[in-house]
Amino acid sequence: MVRIKNFSITAHIDHGKSTLADRLIQHSHLVDERRFKNQMLDTMDIERERGITIKSQTVCLPYRSKAGEDFVLNLIDTPGHVDFSYEVSRALASCEGVLLLVDASQGVEAQTMANLYLALEHDLTIIPVINKIDLPSADIERAKEMIEVELGLDSDKTILCSAKTGQGVEDVLEAIVEQIPDPAGDPSAPLRALIFDAQYDAFRGAIISCRVVDGSVGPGDTIRLMSLGTTHKVEEVGVFKIDMEKRKRLSAGEVGYIIAGIKTVSDTRIGDTVVLDEDPMPPALAGFKEVKPVVFSSIYPIDSDDNAALADALEKYKLNDASLSYQRDSSAALGHGFRCGFLGMLHLEVFQERLDREFNQAIIMTAPSVEYKFILANGTEVEVDNPEYYPDPAMIVKALEPYIKATIMIPEKYMGAVMQLCLARRGVNSHFHYPTAGRIEVFFEMPLAEVIHDFYDKLKTITQGYGSFDYDLLDYRQDDLIKVDILVNSEKVDALSIIVHKERARTKAKLMCDRLREEIPRHMFKIAIQAAVGGKIIARSTISAMRKDVTAKCYGGDISRKRKLLEKQAKGKKRMKSVGRVMIPQDAFVAVLKTNED
Asked: Rounded to whole angstroms, how far apart are CA atoms 250 and 60?
């Protein structure tokens, strides 16, 4: 009887999770040396270039222990970024244990803590592993102390390894088979399987990745997805051994895939429960929730003729990424486009990159915003993710914006600079503690809108790369929010409108006006760039006119002749200003998006 062990590897970004997965795959001889490549489980080019995992993968590893017993180790890889924390939680719900990776030179970071709490929520066996012990800067004793003090885990049971050189990988595998419990579940009970991922195949539709909790499933069965209530006939089941390997049935405790003619990834839900249609409805597995976007941005094609091609590209992109939401939008300045919702800023960046590479789409994105809530005088509550739909200020009784709890881990010497950064971004209720000598864990409650632009980049800069950051969404809180409109030559440019806190409106508006002045080319007439709140102008920059010297042909003579020529020119400029249109280049929208306040 082959025993099953289901586990995951969790770590802070760049602590060696993908490299360790590579060594485990090599140790299991799943692929020969000719086919092997680094970051074997990362299938996208952007994942390889950035060294991050965006789409979780699964692999089934055969292993014979030192005692001679045969095991099947199901590695359920997880994304490594806060934007995808729900997918991480569903992947962990499919496991019985995790390897918690800690960098020997960096120690415990913010996301290490977040991943530990996620694992504890699911009551998983946690095996601490110190990686990168081959580095000259490795401080194993300090890393062990941090695991003991900050994580509350037994440092004596910590496994030392180097995923790069392969040192200690055998010890990691032995710890998995010894410490992680066998999966519980009744193969004879009604089917219940947890969906933790899905991917799209052009020929076979959506392929569901799932963990069978109870019962079994095989070709010919009719399954029901509980949250949607849809039924599908199973065509094929199997396991992931880098490539998909067909099986007759998947039983309780196993991790694999189901192909059932599901047309798109959007027709599945991460965290949903799969049951057999003929069974009496068993209780759904806990933890399912609808994934809601938190960051919104409008996208427009650079060439308006490409609108149909962009719509086609979004439709195809959505087949592979169910968490993207979009709807048609239009702007007087930029024409027809789409309003898109994302899980976070990394999700937005990946979307932009993939749209360019995979679909060859050149786009303009408006400044990202979050979803605000406004309670109006008539008692209704409206949700606004686009400044264009900001309600009439006279009707607003209360304005609410989303807040997060930020966890920042830094060396002690950067405390002042980090506090200054967080307070400048409207951070409140700060507290901190010293987990180990020389390191501080800082907690702040901050508006999400202050974090989504460049907060992480700023943190990395002021801490010289040593700061780490993680956050959880808290709630909506009342704030004094206003809409700032940008007017170019007295015409409102709706794509540049923003919703900001009243105290920061003047500063932000001035920066936007100055940046536009640099980017918009000079015209034959003077151009006023203004920022307005309602009918009140709060900031202004002026682009001077290109001017021809009309008095050059005059030599000597009465001054009145020159004055007549100048007055004639002034009248022409005034007429030109009233009828002329200002051409705003695409670069101007990108420049305003990158406006730096600090």
From this structure: 13
Residues of the chain with CATH 3.30.70.870: 295-365
DSSP code, position 544: P
The C-alpha torsion from 82 through 87 and 92 to 93, rounded to 10°, is 140
- In this structure, what are the phi and psi dihedrals at residue 486, rounded to the nearest 5 degrees? -105, 125
Q: 295-365, what's its fold?
A: Alpha-Beta Plaits (3.30.70)
Distance CA 47, CA 326 (A): 24
Region class of 311: left (phi > 0), else alpha (psi between -120 and 50), else beta: alpha
Give the residue carrying structure tokens 């009496």.
280
- Residue with the two structure tokens 């991460």: 270
pLDDT tens-digit series, residues 194-211: 888 888 888 888 888 888
| Report for 221-235, 446-460, 536-550: range of highest mean pLDDT | 221-235
E strand or H helix at 394, and its extent?
none
The domain made up of 482-593 has a fold known as: Alpha-Beta Plaits (3.30.70)
**CB-side neighbour CA atoms (13 Å) of 138:** 16
Longest dimension (CA), the chain: 111
The tens digit of pLDDT for each residue in 522-555 reads 877 788 889 999 889 999 998 887 767 766 677 6
Q: How far apart are CA 95 and CA 73, in angstroms?
A: 11
Q: Answer yes or no: CATH 3.40.1190.20 is held by domain 3-179.
A: no
How do the residues of the chain divide into helix, strand and coil, expressed in percent and rounded to 5? 30, 35, 35
d(CA 473, CA 434): 24
This prediction's pTM: 0.70
- Angle CA 79–76–20, to nearest 5: 75
